[in-house]
Specification:
InterPro entries: DUF5995. Pfam families: DUF5995. With 278 residues, the chain is mainly α. The protein is built from nine helices and two strands; from the N terminus they run E-E-H-H-H-H-H-H-H-H-H. The protein has a two-stranded antiparallel ribbon. A hairpin with a 5-residue loop joins strand 1 and strand 2. Helix 3 crosses helix 5 and helix 4 packs antiparallel against helix 5. It is globular and about 55 Å long. The N and C termini lie far apart (36 Å).
């Protein structure tokens, strides 16, 4: 079963996945990953000190980690699916949401919560990262997985490759945390696993649980016998991601936006305007 993902939060039967983002994986897989990384770097750099920037910043590190894994021949069963089709489709859903929000078009509730917190809330950059990661993993991932299929063309589950990707995530964690702390918000340094291994372990466990739930929701989409059953799964996916978004954005520190902005303007090493483009 394949699905088309819509930014309104629903799905419709179709012959192939169709995130509308600008990336198309053609040619060598490593080139697909490099294209994704460069696209995310462009968004990160254009955003400057905008509070939406920490999420694409950590996403860049994930793509770098995946690029290294592909270049070094990480033992994936189906690298063209994991690093090619899945990665490209997954990045495109973030790009779709980002561009829709910029244009003032509706986005799913959990994405709306993440973007709204970045625009107006007194949250820290770690919360911005987790808000983005929550909706991207728990909301977007099930749809992409279901659209591409959970089994290989010749038979056999794709779950082992999906699980192996966790190692790519784990390797990206430390560099991503340090980069966000250096660029945007010093408080994120509290999660640096070089001296706070508990933070790295806790983050790893959280992402594992989110990714496990995403796979299960994708399986439910694929196994749904009819449209009504699929709609029930969609509601579970959307509600779960939105509930997590409310939880992650609940803690606010009055005036912390100004603290973050001052820090970013002072500490960023990039030649970027610290404005907040739409």
């Amino acid at each position: 079963m394949a699905v088309v993902v819509t930014l309104g939060g629903g799905i419709a039967s179709a012959a192939a996945p169709a995130p509308a983002g600008p990336l198309a994986c053609q040619g060598p897989v490593i080139r697909c990953v490099q294209d994704a990384r460069r696209t995310l770097e462009g968004i990160r750099d254009r955003l400057g000190c905008d509070h939406r920037a920490p999420f694409p910043a950590i996403y860049v590190h994930l793509e770098r980690s995946l690029e290294t894994a592909v270049a070094h021949g990480e033992p994936f069963d189906e690298p063209s699916w994991l690093a090619g089709s899945l990665n490209t489709g997954f990045v495109n859903l973030y790009l779709d949401a980002y561009e829709a929000d910029r244009a003032g078009r509706p986005v799913p509730a959990a994405w709306h919560a993440a973007f709204a917190a970045a625009r107006t809330a007194d949250v820290n950059a770690g919360q911005d990262v987790l808000l983005g990661a929550n909706v991207h993993i728990q909301r977007d991932m099930p749809y992409v997985l279901a659209a591409l299929g959970l089994t290989r063309p010749q038979g056999g589950t794709r779950k082992p490759d999906y699980d192996r990707f966790q190692a790519v995530l784990d390797r990206a964690y430390g560099p991503a945390v340090r980069d966000v702390a250096d660029r945007y918000d010093l408080i994120v340094a509290l999660a640096d696993d070089r001296w706070n291994p508990i933070a790295g372990l806790t983050a790893g466990q959280l992402f594992r649980s989110w990714r496990a739930r995403a796979w299960e929701h994708a399986r439910q989409l694929v196994d749904a016998p009819d449209e009504a059953a699929r709609d029930r799964v969609v509601r579970r996916i959307e509600t779960n991601a939105a509930d997590w978004a409310r939880l992650l954005s609940a803690v606010r520190v009055p005036g912390y936006r100004t603290v973050r902005d001052d820090y970013c303007r002072t500490h960023t090493t990039r030649e970027l305007a610290p404005t907040r483009p739409r």
